[in-house]
Write a structure and sequence with these properties.
Elements (H helix, E strand, L loop, with lengths): L2 H25 L9 E7 L2 E5 L15 E4 L2 E8 L6 E3 L6 E4 L4 E4 L5 E4 L5 E2 L5 E2 L6 E2 L8 E6 L4 E6 L6 E5 L2 E3 L7 E4 L2 E3 L8 E3 L8 E4 L1 E3 L5 H33 L4
């Protein structure tokens, strides 16, 4: 059987997954804090027909070998943590990270998750929470009758209460960084979970120890570039098409061999 039938099939399967990932990037082009993914490919095993350096007649050695590759496979999907564009909102609870780091939030299970999405809200108890109601850690509770909220670059949160002129400090947001952010596991809802590959979370104050600073009244948008993803779509589609042509050519060769006459 012609190897190219199966080799080209692996290429079509890999490009199909590539298109799925590109489509997910484009679907999240307006998602705050979203980081695009990239698919890495690996070649498959090789069939060695003749090894390089094999002995020939009269003591000669073959300078190069003869190997046939058996296709490709998806090796990994990697999150690209380049910064996204900043969008001004004027809402003091919209907080963008300028630089490295993640906000930490508490899940209902008691576990900590991490996000770059700083579109925070206030729940019925005055806690600062995400859009899904997960409280930001460390917890910060706003008092009643807040006239003005101030979020500093170092994460310090202050508020001016009605009837007062001096701001009252309420707490401080902290950021978390990882040795290998690409090793984080995406769980949806703009949240990441740590893994053994990401390393342990390192908590610190914004603006210190390599962590970014905070910008109140801004949101970090997705880092997806539409033009770049459209080029990836075209490239993936053409690669899928040319692999299908390889299968068609192999099928025609088999058909010719099957119809040979004496």
């Amino acid at each position: 059987m012609i190897r190219s039938l199966y080799t080209a099939a692996t290429g079509m399967e890999a490009q199909q997954l590539n298109l799925d990932i590109t489509a997910n990037n484009l679907a999240n082009v307006s998602t705050a804090g979203f980081k695009k993914s990239r698919l890495d490919f690996q070649d498959l095993l090789y069939q060695t027909i003749r090894s390089a350096g094999a002995d020939q007649a009269q003591g000669m050695q073959v300078p190069t070998g003869l190997q046939v590759g058996l296709g490709t496979r998806p090796g990994a999907t990697q999150k690209i943590f380049t910064p996204g564009d900043m969008q001004q909102t004027g809402n003091p609870l919209d907080v963008a990270i300028e630089g490295s780091g993640f906000f930490q939030v508490m899940l209902p299970s008691g576990d900590l998750a991490y996000t770059r999405d700083g579109s925070f809200k206030v729940d019925g108890t005055g806690k600062i929470v995400t859009s899904d109601g997960y409280p930001v850690q460390p917890e910060i509770t706003l008092p009643d009758q807040v006239k003005e909220l101030i979020v500093g670059e170092d994460g310090t949160i202050s508020a001016i209460i009605s009837g007062q002129t001096d701001p009252q400090e309420l707490g401080q947001m902290q950021l978390v960084n990882f040795l290998n952010p690409a090793g984080l596991s995406s769980m949806g809802r703009n949240l990441y979970l740590p893994t053994r590959a990401s390393g342990d979370p390192m908590t610190g104050t914004p603006g210190q120890d390599g962590l970014g600073t905070l910008a109140s009244g801004y949101l970090e948008m997705s880092n997806v570039k539409v033009v770049e993803e459209m080029v990836n779509l075209i490239t993936g589609q053409r690669a899928y098409e040319v692999n299908s042509k390889s299968i068609q050519s192999a099928d025609e060769m088999l058909n010719i061999a099957n119809n040979l006459r004496r």
